[in-house]
From TrEMBL:
PANTHER family: 28S RRNA (CYTOSINE(4447)-C(5))-METHYLTRANSFERASE-RELATED, NOP2 YEAST -RELATED NOL1/NOP2/FMU SUN DOMAIN-CONTAINING
Binding-site residues, S-adenosyl-L-methionine: C106, A107, A108, P109, G110, G111, K112, E130, D157, D175
Protein's UniProt name: RsmF rRNA methyltransferase first C-terminal domain-containing protein
Domain of life: Bacteria
Family note: Belongs to the class I-like SAM-binding methyltransferase superfamily. RsmB/NOP family.
Organism: Lactobacillus jensenii
A GO term, aspect molecular function: methyltransferase activity
UniProt-listed InterPro entries: Methyltr_RsmF_N, MeTrfase_RsmB-F_NOP2_cat, MeTrfase_RsmB-F_NOP2_dom, Nol1_Nop2_Fmu_2, Nop2p, RCMT, RsmB/NOL1/NOP2-like_CS, RsmF_methylt_CI
Active-site residues per Swiss-Prot or TrEMBL entry: C228
Length: 462
């Protein structure tokens, strides 16, 4: 690993802030980063993986230290997610329950969203939002791989999202854009854009995001604020802002690892010791900060909900959006394919809808006025009297043991399929089948004779 060269201003700042503890902090920044991964409890037999599970991440369910490869079947079919161990704790600390409505406001690339989906267990709703279009694309792919059906993926500005979902969510996770000091050890490039001015700029942006986030939270709802920086201006001082300006109360979380928040850095705020600081010398992972809050009073700046709903209704009516008819014949085509596979208990075809010939089961019925990348579970696409199932459906069906499956025989066949090539089978099957490797479903194929036509999406091919 190349030597980490820190800005003098950064060194001076943390020598002053940490005093006698500064030496251990700077020494730890020279150590090798730790790597970890989470297993996906939504998948069938999810603990049957080829990775070493002997070193769990303390206090995080289904999480282990170790390195995984994006070429392994476990990654391709969503059995695992590679994530910095410290970054696993915010979703754990939020403590969501099945059935809740949850927002991951700054969601890409998807580590926290997939953890929240695991906790929801196919019940309730997750809205995973990312303002960057390119990062939102990666977010969508990672959520698709996870195989959940109860997620709305959006690419929207926070203020626009707040107009759409006033006082709607039971829990919100804001992993805010920050100065990235906690990533210095892992990503030396992060050092090049650091300055104290940038820290203050990030702090200002964090407040703007939180001003909108509070509008979307129910009174009594939970907000988890996190960053990957050490800067008090972006951590404890933001906690003070949430309490003093936005009506929040700091509360304890179930996360009891790492170090406590520092009272002197957060206006000696009551409960700041409940916040957790992940320093490199804690030997857990990279730099991270988290704090959990309860909204004790509703935002004074939000419109009345009934008024807002009426305005939304008028906008939709004025827009005159044409509703696509999902015909009985089309429904039968889809049902015929689905009948060949074992469906999770959460599956409800009665809610199925059609848009531009794409058939899906929406997680949110009305998505007007927001940019949506994926809404719930896409089943597939109708093409001239036939129905072609989607990659997301294949990943979703991986939650259950299936019979209509072609099992690839070796690594060479698996790699051929990832390349987009056909493979052969001796199974007496015809039509669409699920394709798996090492017992793990990852795609659809279509059997004609002894050939399995490749339906692994072109955008994912290696």
């Amino acid at each position: 690993m190349d030597k980490l060269v820190l800005p003098k201003e950064f060194i001076d700042k943390y020598q002053k802030l940490l005093a006698t503890k500064a030496s251990s902090f700077f020494t730890a920044l020279e150590a090798e980063p730790k790597k970890a991964f989470r297993l996906n409890p939504l998948k069938a037999n999810y603990q049957k993986v080829s990775y070493d599970l002997s070193e769990p991440v303390n206090g995080v369910e289904d999480a282990y230290y170790g390195e995984i490869s994006g070429r392994d079947i476990e990654w391709v079919n969503g059995y695992v997610y590679s994530q910095d161990p410290s970054a696993m704790y915010p979703a754990e600390a939020l403590g969501v329950k099945p059935g809740q409505k949850v927002l991951d406001l700054c969601a890409a690339p998807g580590g926290k969203s997939t953890a929240l989906l695991s906790a929801l267990k196919n019940e309730g709703l997750l809205v995973a939002n990312e303002i960057s279009a390119s990062r939102a694309k990666n977010l969508r792919e990672n959520i698709e791989r996870w195989g959940a059906s109860n997620c709305l993926v959006t690419n929207e500005d926070t203020s626009q999202l707040a107009k759409k979902f006033p006082h709607f969510f039971d829990a919100i996770l804001v992993d805010a854009p920050c100065s990235g000091e906690g990533m210095f050890r892992k990503n030396h490039d992060a050092v090049t854009y650091w300055s104290q001015e940038y820290v203050l700029e990030c702090s200002s942006r964090q407040k703007e995001i939180l001003n909108e986030a509070v509008k979307m939270l129910k009174t009594g709802g939970s907000l988890l604020y996190s960053t990957c920086t050490y800067a008090p201006e972006e951590d404890e001082k933001i906690c003070a802002y949430l309490v003093n300006k936005l009506g929040f109360k700091l509360v304890k979380t179930k996360v009891n690892v790492a170090s406590a928040g520092v009272p002197a850095w957060g206006e000696n705020l009551a409960g700041i010791e409940y916040a957790r600081r992940f320093w490199p010398q804690d030997e857990i992972g990279e730099g991270q900060f988290l704090a959990k809050f309860i909204l004790s009073k509703a935002s004074d700046t939000e419109e009345n909900i009934d008024d807002f709903k009426q305005k939304n209704k008028k906008r939709r009516k004025k827009a005159g959006k044409k509703v696509e008819i999902f015909t009985k014949a089309e429904k039968e085509l889809v049902k015929e394919l689905l009948a060949s596979f074992n469906l999770p208990v959460s599956f409800d075809f009665s809610k199925a809808a059609k848009s531009n010939d794409h058939v899906y089961i929406p997680a949110v019925e009305d998505t007007s006025q927001i940019k949506v990348l994926n809404n719930g579970l896409e089943l597939g696409i109708l093409k001239k009297g036939r129905f072609q199932p989607s990659q997301q459906l294949a990943q979703y069906l991986g939650q259950m043991q299936q019979e209509r499956v072609v099992e690839l025989q070796n690594q060479a066949e698996f790699e051929k399929y990832l390349h987009g090539e056909t493979v052969k089978t001796e199974k007496k099957l015809k039509g669409f089948v699920l394709v798996s490797y090492q017992g793990k479903i990852f795609s659809f194929g279509k059997v004609a004779g002894q050939v399995v036509k490749n339906f692994y999406p072109k955008g994912l091919r290696v």
